[in-house]
Model the fold of this input.
Amino acid sequence: MALELLLALVLGGISGIAVLLHLTGRSRQAVLGIETARSGWLRHFPGDRVLKVLPAASGQAALVLTSGGPGLLWAFGADTVGRHLDGSNTCETATGLRFEFNDFAAPGLSLTLSESERRQWLALISPPAETA
Amino acid sequence: MTGQISYPDVTQLAVPFFIAAILAEFLWIAVKHRGGRYETRDAVTSLIMGAGSVAEGLLLGFIAWALFMFLWELTPLNMGTSVWAVLACFVLDDLRYYWVHRFGHRVRWVWASHVNHHSSQHYNLTTALRQTWTGTFTFMMIVKAPMVLLGFHPALVLFCGGLNLIYQFWIHTEAVTRLPRWFELVMNTPSHHRAHHGRNPRYLDCNYAGVFIIWDKMFGTFVPEQDHDRPDYGLVHNIATFNPLRVAFHEWAGIFKDMSQPGLTLKQRLLYAFAPPGYSHDGSRDTSAGIKAAHLARHPEDAGTPGFGG
Done:
């Protein structure tokens, strides 16, 4: 097959399929509530014991408190992905929080959170050290 | 041994069929509201991975070709190009595929290349095209060497490899449930391969077959798909990116990061590259054996069932 024809088929095929999927609603993101986040977390980490789930008001993500420490579950297309937060960095942004996972397969994630959500999440992710 | 033999590049010729089949599967799902799921970015990533894999073949295919032609010059054997030779080559190549695929799941160096094929949480015909960009760097082309030395021309070996890949395209679907019993007994099918793509503990490291499922039955790696434990697609630790570059290289980056940790012995560094995926020098991660054991600790009732020693 001529390279030009192969290139046209590949580019046309990918573009056409992308447009078709988008126009038929296949670009919708998952929305997380307490139960969907809990089951989503256990799907990724079946050995964890979930203590508490705090979905963001946007439904974009949820902070999951587990027996092994806090974790973050977030919408990844129509599905979800999760990461424990030990070894990650969390910083405040103008609109919420940004997470850096130090993981090549999980580039940083910026979440939009209200001021109260941000404070609550930060307190749970990095609780103040107990005083003696 | 010399000889000018050429066969068509069947994977390139199949591209229009791939596109048409994807559209047909999508329409089937849209109309029937069953038989799988499609997601835009997931599908586009898979398709770009497929295009990149073809490009890698065009750019680096000469390395394997040069090796095979070198071996072809050495061998005194010539199986010819009869129908029987093509059939024998196809079956032997499928056996070759089984072992390369098994290495691809049991040796992290090879898994680094193959992992991207399993990195989608979806299972549809676009997943079939989510292919590696780094296959050359695994050096698994060496497993084809015995076939050339046996007298199968390199062009024939590559032709059969292409046919094998095309066969595997159509089994990446949820639209087909089960096929006739005789077919399921001998051939790799959508059902068998769905199990292979499952991240459920039951399905880890099973059903490596390309075309004939008999290899898994012969070598003890066959696990039938269970209706009560539907395959959950993706990786044990799912990736969080649709970026094709990250999809293609994330495990290689992981190997480099692990091997370059301070304070490891040479053996530990090498094990990070060549031990089964999930190896860690401090036991902080789980291999598939550990994952199965942890599952059985939570669900002892599964002991002795398919995938758990049954």
Q: What stands out?
A: Chain B has a mean pLDDT of 97. The radius of gyration of chain B is 20 Å.
